[in-house]
Amino acid sequence: MKILSLVSVGWAITASCAAQSLDLPTSKQLVGELPGHPQRLNSLPISMAVSPDGRYVVSVNAGYGTFESNYDQSLAVLDSKTGELADFPDARTLTRVAKQTLYSGLAFSRDGATLYVSMASLSDPEGNGKDRTGSGIAVYSFKAGKVAPEKILPLPMVELSGNRRTNLVGNKPGTKGVPYPAAIAVVGVAGREKLLVAENLTDDVVLLDPATGAVEQRFDLAESDAIPSTYPVALAVAKDGKRAFVAQWNASEIVELNLEKNTVGRRLPLLKPPSEVAPGTHPCAFEFAPDGRTLYVALANRDAVAAVNVAAGEFAVKGYFDTRLPQQSYFGAEPVALAASPDGARIYVANAASDAVAVLDAHKLTAKVAKQTMVEPDGFIPTEWMPMTLALTGGKLYIATAKGHGTGPNNLPQLMTGLMLKSGEPQRKTTYIATLLYGSLATLELADVAKKLPAWTESVIASNRMKAAEEKVVFAGGATGKIKHVLYIIKENRTYDQIFGDLERNGKPVGNGDKSLTMYGAAITPNLHKLALQFGVLDNFFDSGEVSGDGHVWSMAAIGSDYLEKTWQQSYRGGQRTYDYEGVVAQGYPLLQKIPDVNEPASGYLWGNAEAHGRTHYNFGEYIASAFCGESGSDNPQLGPVLAGPKCVHSHYAPGEALPENWGGGVNQWPWPIPVLAGNTPTKPELVGHYAEESPDFELSIPDQIRASVFLRHLQGWIEERKAGQDTMPNLIVMRLGNDHTAGTQPGGPTPSASIADNDLAAGRIVEGISHSAYWDDTAIFMLEDDAQAGGDHVDAHRSIALVISKYAPRAAAGGPVVDSRFYSTVSVIRTIESLLDLPPMNNNDAFASLIGSLFTGTGDQPAFAADTANRDNGLIYKANQKNAVGAKASMKMDFRHEDRAPVEKLNVILWKDAMGSQPVPAMLKVHVKADKDDD
Model's pTM, two decimal places? Predict the structure, then answer.
């Protein structure tokens, strides 16, 4: 294991950088120089542990991996006496190559000589092959602050009992559960040291002998036939060693284990919602009071901390603390970690969503107060982006954040490790966003907290924009309420420079673009260019999500969940977590399983907000699971294989074959077969009865022209009804239009340029349809990318394209384009939609996000839009890849059935080569992936 000095490679954030105010894609800010002198860490420090002697603080960095750590995951060790910080990458976790990942479990042996860390594998849980550990406990030696790997204690597959099934093996219902270690706790049993391990994906906890590796006891915590459903995530062991406690992440409860009898004891609900499918409260972290009589529990999806009486065999809630900011009335603190002061007087709580640590006074939770209300914090400590874990030792509080100081531009070459240079890989032109997400570690003197807490609290209030004046969309002349309908279109994965870097009018650049990074400029996306120049250019717009997994959640919820932030990097770096987003979790559908969706934020989604406040809504393919005729049931295990039936006479529409009328009719003009849609299933309860049954999900072999035709057919119906005196068009319409993702260069499939041009024309046709109807008077159209992971940008890896379209768009002087360079984010789009439809915010993000009101200040004389059909007329949208297309062999191995199943690094290289030809290759995200022998 290679030791990297974090200081020697320049990981300390400079004072000049730290002193700046920085806009975050979440809609928040980092304001001024933050306390504790944060130092950079490898990505996603998810847990910390303090050595028994109190000298060392260790973090497990379980994210994507950064250059300084060789793109491996790592353990970082801080010497609390000297302040020296060292990083210990684990080569077994090499990004995109490793079949295993570090995760949240981290514990010292009682003598301090050993570290136990969770090592999880979803793709190869039994470790079949060289450098494959399988799922288990990674054992490291620890001496004088140095870490070295020793062995793996493997965890066996779990035989599920009764009717319990999991979809995690082979993407189909099976009885073999995948052990996925999360929390680890060291316990003394009969004078010997044992390990308790929370198996996150099998809904159980095991007792393990670290000397032999034998599993001695299994505690079954399942509450459903769907495995996983409760997701055990955190552990705590009572001082006397007779009891342990388990946080059930998705069950809104903690469970007592009797370690003397090896039995499962009582279950304690913690603000559990009454609905079986409502998002739970997410108990996710524990901390004992120093006397061991009170157990504090962080409830991330409830903005609360529970105090549980565990003294003398008790197991009952004493009361709750509220971790929200002063005057915060909406959800959005998301407490994920706890630390107690040595005297028990104070509890420190990491609020991931408000970039702060809440300081609680434990003495304020009296029996009288607990009956009346939650106890509010005394104040807050500002942190860098997304505090994730805390530790306390020697009078100092250690705060590790998941995303540090943000990302910055990614137009610079991907930094190469020695291994990459040795392998002869080419220098790349741009850098993948996930490799730019550094964690950070701040060190605070507890003595400073009392005297600086008032000022720090004011800083946190400012960084959360809670002093910002309320904004509303105001039209010319001070009018309001002109928009009654909003169409919200979500596209896939492009940066600003990738599309609009070449934006110009009369030969002069428009907006802050870098033409050298433009892959799909005006010739391929004429409609997007035309729309931006007519209705307004937003050249400082940031996607809130880094990848599609979190991007679709943020695009509909304006916030992420703690589960999302603790799992997407393991999923994207090597497929060691399932794609648990858009209402799909562990290859299942929680709505159909009748369990909560562990990834859903408590504040819900935009369509739920609309429904709750009397607005109508309708959906075209977003958070919808499609089944296609003839496909394997493994793609949608709960929907099962689609058998022959009325809709499934055949599996595809061949070139030249008639298309159904509800898809626009005519014949398949594309040279590739188009799959037949068998049916759709909404993944959220609010969407039941409010979606187009004929509109497909992500499936990329269905052209976006079909999705546009589906929408336009509905639009025509609404137009006819409006002519008859009835306005039946829903107030909120959400639409998926994602073929700009592209399906690589698979022979016979659409070329990347064809996919992008197809997406562009579909967008143009939709705007044309609305703008030539009576609905142009009262409709606004918003388009954005769910994330910006698939390209380079010279401003920031999160910067992307967004369009706001209505007849009320302003005109610039002399007829030029309007450019608004104010900072906006995905959250700003949601807040603007809410303002137009007179909806309240959902959470504390959209409550204070900057509003895109500038693009509604025109006089209402914007003309109808005419779609540019050049790329249909010249045949570009019908162009198929040839057998010798660059990257064809690699593309054929990729899964384009669902979002981001294809390895993004390889795909981005293929797209660059396809679009840019001989220009220097930016294998942007290939990082250090070994090419398969038959990859071209």
Answer: 0.94
